[in-house]
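User: Design a sequence. Structure:
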């Protein structure tokens, strides 16, 4: 039986096993998908197990999306651009790092029929998922990307990695069309202290968090009369692409899958 994992720390919250195991069963694939919490010094040894095919592949979540890169043989173009890997495949003897967060975000936005082209985007946070959001937003031709992070050094590092990024201080809210919460604030009912006085209407509030379904950030967006969306579709589509890479099959993305993830 083939074996797949998601590695991260913490990992307890991950819904990836539920989703992948559902799809494996649905497609009659003889494989199992589990989550495993690793320490940084265990990463190299774990990845070696994929090279010798004790393990068939893995997803990577925070805080290891960059950590895994030196242990891989090749990166896809997108993983290279983002310097972030969330899916590892074994291909003709090589360990290949892919980034399916990028297409996950793109597919989610496309399926909402939201047009990113020529829009001003404000991203809150500078953690693991942000480089992928930036690559996707650039592909979708956003006109401006501004990062606001509590620790300004991390926002400045992203500015060095990508062209055309602006940064503002944490708490500052410049004019935007779409605001994305990519911080961990909201996972445990926290609020984000934003100066809302200049936020008009016709904006799009997007939260990468999908559990809870509606964070305080999204509640605020709604209260101000704006469009809101959580990160569930992005999560489903990044898994969809990883599943396709490993098994060569496009799995089901339907209402049933939404319900499956809602039960938690
Ligand atoms: P990592 O930083 O390890 O990649 P992450 O979950 O991807 O982890 O990122 C957490 C993000 O939430 C970061 O942008 C973090 O800001 P810092 O870079 O300043 O740590 C942000 N964050 C977490 N707790 C926060 C808080 N209480 N106030 C503001 N931002 C917070």
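Assistant: Done.
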């Amino acid at each position: 039986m083939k074996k797949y994992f998601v590695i991260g720390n913490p990992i307890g919250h991950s819904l990836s096993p539920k989703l992948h195991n559902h799809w494996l069963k649905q497609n009659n694939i003889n494989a199992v998908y589990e989550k495993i919490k690793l320490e940084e010094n265990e990463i190299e040894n774990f990845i070696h197990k994929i090279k010798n095919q004790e393990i068939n592949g893995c997803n990577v979540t925070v805080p290891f999306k960059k950590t895994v890169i030196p242990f891989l043989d090749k990166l896809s173009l997108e993983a290279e651009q983002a310097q972030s890997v969330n899916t590892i495949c074994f291909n003709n003897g090589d360990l290949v790092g892919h980034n399916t967060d990028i297409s996950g975000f793109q597919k989610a936005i496309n399926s909402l029929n939201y047009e990113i082209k020529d829009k001003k985007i404000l991203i809150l946070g500078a953690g693991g998922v942000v480089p992928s959001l930036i690559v996707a937003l650039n592909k979708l031709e956003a006109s401006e990307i501004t990062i606001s992070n509590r620790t300004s050094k991390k926002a400045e590092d992203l500015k060095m990695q990508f062209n055309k990024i602006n940064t503002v201080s944490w708490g500052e809210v410049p004019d935007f069309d779409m605001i994305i919460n990519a911080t961990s604030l909201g996972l445990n009912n926290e609020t984000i202290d934003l100066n809302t006085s200049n936020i008009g209407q016709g904006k799009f509030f997007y939260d990468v968090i999908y559990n809870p379904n509606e964070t305080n950030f999204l509640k605020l967006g709604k209260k101000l009369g704006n469009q809101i969306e959580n990160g569930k579709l992005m999560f489903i589509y990044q898994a969809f692409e990883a599943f396709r890479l490993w098994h060569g099959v496009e799995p089901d993305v339907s209402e049933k899958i939404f319900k499956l993830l809602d039960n938690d």
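The chain has two domains: 2-99+233-262, 103-230. Residues 62-63, 125-129, 149-151, 154, 183-185 surround 2'-monophosphoadenosine-5'-diphosphate (CB under 6 Å).
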